[in-house]
């Protein structure tokens, strides 16, 4: 698929990315240009923008699926290869997705709904089938240096309403915000959902559930719901004695 590239990142789009959680030191090191074609006519007419880092492309199937239904004011920035991603969907107006350099999501799926955002700053590695889902104005922000084992699921919402039968008050998250700070390791089949912050250097054990929680820096947590099982830890991607 031939790509026609136009102008570099505009000041307006740069500011929008910064507000959403993209780090200046990540963005300012990228050579980004807006894609002019091949995209459907409505893409530009509706104020959407796709930027690619020099040398990067997007598999045609991702573009075809993403543009089945029109939306407006979406901002998509791709600074890494996308051949390994199986699904990238923008589910409404104002969606924002930033996939930074050195990111690898093997068989990954990303959904970003209206007014929502998914920001993967740099060196975010999902080893197998990571699923990310931001909706209802929610956000997922991953700072640099992430290691996610197979089957990790990160979602701002439960996608259905759960309420108190007597009062009608909603009980489950709606448009929640998730932040994974630098150097976080998520074990196999970890679920992160609701309003969550995982501190720098933290480790989340296999099959743990982190829901509406703040995980301190440099701790190991495990269980459902997750609880601290050890403090003062660090980790390395090298499997050495």
The number of distinct helices, counting runs of at least 4 residues, comes to 4
In the CATH hierarchy, what is the class? Mainly Beta
What would you say the CATH architecture is?
3 Solenoid
Which strand order does the major sheet show?
1-2-3-4-6-9-12-15-18-21
* Residue windows where pLDDT falls under 50 for at least 5 positions: none
Q: How many domain units?
A: 1
**pLDDT average, as an integer?**
96
Categorize the overall geometry.
Answer: globular
Quaternary structure annotation:
single chain
Could you state the CATH homologous superfamily? Hexapeptide repeat proteins
Secondary-structure element order, as H and E?
EHHEHEHEEEEEEEEEEEEEEEEEEEE
Structural class: mainly beta
> Within the CATH hierarchy, at the fold level, what is the topology?
UDP N-Acetylglucosamine Acyltransferase, domain 1
Our measurement of the CA-to-CA distance between the termini, rounded to an integer number of angstroms, reads: 47 Å
Assign a percent range to the helix content.
10-25%
Strand content: 35-45%
Largest sheet, strands/sense/barrel: 10 strands, mixed
Task: Please provide a written account of the structure.
With 241 residues, the chain is mainly β. The protein has one domain (4-231): UDP N-Acetylglucosamine Acyltransferase, domain 1. It is built from four helices and 23 strands. The chain has helices at residues 11-20, 24-27, 41-45, 60-66; strands at residues 4-8, 32-37, 49-53, 75-78, 85-91, 96-99, 104-105, 108-113, 117-120, 124-126, 131-134, 139-142, 146-148, 153-155, 177-180, 184-186, 191-193, 196-198, 203-204, 209-211, 214-215, 219-222, 227-231. It has a ten-stranded mixed sheet, covered by helices on one side. Strands 7-10-13-16-19-22-23 form a seven-stranded mixed sheet, with no helix packed on it. Strands 5-8-11-14-17-20 form a six-stranded parallel sheet. The longest helix has 10 residues, at 11-20. The N and C termini lie far apart (47 Å).
């Amino acid at each position: 698929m031939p790509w026609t590239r136009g102008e570099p990142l505009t000041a307006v789009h740069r500011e929008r990315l910064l507000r959403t959680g993209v780090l200046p030191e990540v963005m300012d090191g990228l050579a980004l240009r807006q894609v002019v074609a091949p995209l459907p006519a409505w893409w530009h007419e509706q104020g959407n923008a796709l930027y690619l880092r020099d040398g990067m492309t997007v598999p045609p199937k991702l573009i075809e699926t993403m543009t089945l239904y029109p939306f407006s004011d979406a901002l998509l920035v791709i600074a890494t290869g996308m051949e390994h991603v199986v699904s990238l969907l923008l589910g409404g107006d104002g969606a924002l997705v930033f996939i930074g350099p050195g990111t690898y999501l093997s068989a990954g799926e990303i959904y970003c709904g209206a007014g929502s955002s998914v920001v993967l700053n740099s060196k975010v590695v999902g080893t197998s089938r990571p699923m990310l889902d931001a909706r209802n104005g929610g956000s997922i922000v991953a700072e640099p240096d992430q290691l996610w084992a197979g089957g990790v699921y990160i979602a701002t919402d439960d996608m259905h309403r759960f309420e108190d039968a007597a009062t009608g008050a909603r009980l489950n998250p709606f448009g929640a915000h998730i932040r994974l700070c630098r150097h976080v390791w998520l074990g196999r089949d970890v679920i992160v959902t609701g309003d969550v912050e995982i501190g720098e250097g933290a480790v989340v054990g296999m099959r743990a559930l982190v829901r509406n929680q703040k995980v301190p820096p440099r701790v190991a947590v495990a269980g459902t719901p997750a609880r601290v099982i050890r403090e003062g830890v660090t980790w390395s991607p090298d499997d050495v004695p």
